[in-house]
Amino acid sequence: MIFQPVLNPLLLVLLCAPVAAAIVWALVKARGPRWIWGLRMLMLLAVFAMLLRPGIPGGSSQTLATDTDVVIAVDTTASIVAEDWDGGKPRLDGVRADVQKIVDEYPGARFALITFDATAQLRLPLTTDATALISSLDVLRPEVTAQSRGSSIGVANELLAKTLSSAAKAAPGRARMVFYLGDGEQTSSSQPESFGTAQKYVDAGAVLGYGTKDGGAMKITTGRGTTGSGYIEYQGEKAHSVIDEKNLEKIAEQLGVTYEHRTADAKITLPQAPKTTTDYAESGEVGDVTELYWIFALVIVLLLGVELARATMLVTRMRGLAAPASDRRPAGNHSPSVPDPARRPTTRPAEAVPSVLPDREGDAR
To answer: What's this model's pTM, rounded to 2 decimal places?
Structure first.
């Protein structure tokens, strides 16, 4: 049997020891039934055992460690909320779903997140905490509509190259992958910047395109998200954002990766992590463990049920003792304090009493 405690065992002892001492003292001093304190001691021991997380070692399974840095660049312009994804949903929904698939595809990798609209920002430096990446995307909001002045699809080129260069210097033995997620719509009057500078640092990746040729309407965005019903308008009508696949294909060519148009009903195609940095043999084996903590959790639930049943019984008994005296009738057929109307003596009026008393002598005779 092995143990995988949720806290340091010494800390668990320090937490449980005072409670155990209080139970022992109450068990010695108790005037009533002592069995209830015995059950409480048993509950404490069950909690202690559960927190130790006992288990039985089983077989072994091979794990994969992806020795790769993955940089994800996400378009956060107003067009990313255009409603032409999966039958009228914002494109950002598709972006979030695909990033989750990227995280699942490369376990153990380090991830970084770059967003770009009018400017590019490094939202999350390289980290193995994939949960932080997903959380960053969950709270991600597009640029504020009122502040939008046009954007370039290549504005993130310098920040991407800098991030990849720093990763290469810090860990030259790791591979680097880039995923660019956007719609390719250039709203700036200038020509898109080139990603050619970053290409020498890229070993694999993909450019993922979102949107349709018919386009989708875009809701007005604020710093807190989108408004309930307002849409961006152009010349009195709803403005539509249309995907530009030529621009996206050009970005893929500059980065040296493939381009894929994304739709909700199509399975995403992700490249394999570079084989030179992915070694199944070095990833090692980890033992499978059959967890046993649930047994002690079940014991705790049963003991809590006993405590609850006892508490319910005591409350019921106290309510019975607290009932008012007027509500409790004596066992006899009548109450002394309430006279019986049927047995009340009757009196005749004074004028009905004979005025002449009988003669005592005559009665004697």
So the answer is: 0.61
